[in-house]
Amino acid sequence: MTSNYAKELEIAQLAVQRAAILTKRVFHEKAKGTVSKDDKSPVTIGDFGAQALIISALKANFPQDEVVAEEEAAELRTNSDLQSQIWELVKSTQLNDTAAETLLGGAIPSSEAMLDVIDQGNSKGGKTGRIWTIDPIDGTKGFLRGGQYAVCLALLQDGDVKVGVLGCPNLPVDDSAPLSADIGTNAKDDDGKFGVLFSAVQAEGATSRPLTTGALSRDSKKISMKPIADMSAASFCESVEAGHSNQSDSAKIAEKLGITKHSVRMDSQAKYGSIARGAGDIYLRLPTSKTYQEKIWDHAAGDLIVREAGGQVTDTLGRRLDFSVGRTLASNSGVIAAPAAVHGQVLAVVQEVLGIKA
Ligand SMILES: Nc1ncnc2c1ncn2[C@@H]1O[C@H](COP(=O)(O)OS(=O)(=O)O)[C@@H](OP(=O)(O)O)[C@H]1O
Ligand SMILES: [Mg+2]
Ligand SMILES: [Mg+2]
Ligand SMILES: [Mg+2]
Description:
With 358 residues, this protein is α+β, with helices and mostly antiparallel strands. It is built from eleven helices and 14 strands.
């Protein structure tokens, strides 16, 4: 079968692999150049550098496409020390395979050009045309802790997710490794056991393969969600931060469903990847405030990967995630991801506990 999005998928996978080389380098450096954003959340030189490398690869291959990315360069324009730390990283990060690196286009010419590249992620998003969405480091807090984080990239066409790629440097390569909160914490880069690249193309299924530092690993496997025969043995995952997902509501929902295990708290879209390959079963993200709008870069790749692996992803009202309304999921509230066969059952209990009338 020839893929409808073969080139987009290949470039996206290589761009994510290259960005993950940069984030891993930052993790091993003492100074991560962490600054606090207006919403008090952290951003590091790794987030900015990874975003620059991914946008540069996309613009070299698909110059007409728009990009919605999490970070912006404003702070770097006035902080020359931070800017030069990022530039040192960006100009020295390459895939260790010349043919693969060439596919991603030439190097960014200068530090100033790098700032403009970062700011090319400022599209408003919307319902027409081709729009890429990037979370250069999802789960920045997890990244700083040595826990889970993900480099996330997805292509939307007319608001629909067509391609999704998640690079998870600290998840086990082994699709059947059991899910636990401390899995991959401070994972070693060099033992070959950690680092996985999840991918999906609409209507073509989802895969996992080892995350490499060069050409794509040929060791690609189809992944699928695990059927839940018995809810009491099911595992569900949620955010680490109580401010990102209501953990007392999720405990009530789990109890009503008959789930006996504690939730696995894990940062980032590694949650979507983990349930898509059957290492976990259900992902609950329950709103903590009426005003917070989820960001499209926090969900687009994971939404497609889970659906292509046989899952269903909706919000707490049972609506599909709508990526066509701008930079945020303004028409949605929370996320419920589960195998298609049990999604209705999970949603019914979510709505009962949250007091949502179906
Ligand atoms: N209030 C609130 N509610 C929900 N979500 C929020 C909120 N504030 C921030 N964010 C976004 O959460 C992203 C990280 O989500 P996680 O599921 O990884 O959270 S956690 O780190 O496990 O707690 C995180 O992504 P990154 O900034 O890329 O790490 C934010 O975009
Ligand atoms: Mg952030
Ligand atoms: Mg994020
Ligand atoms: Mg981020």
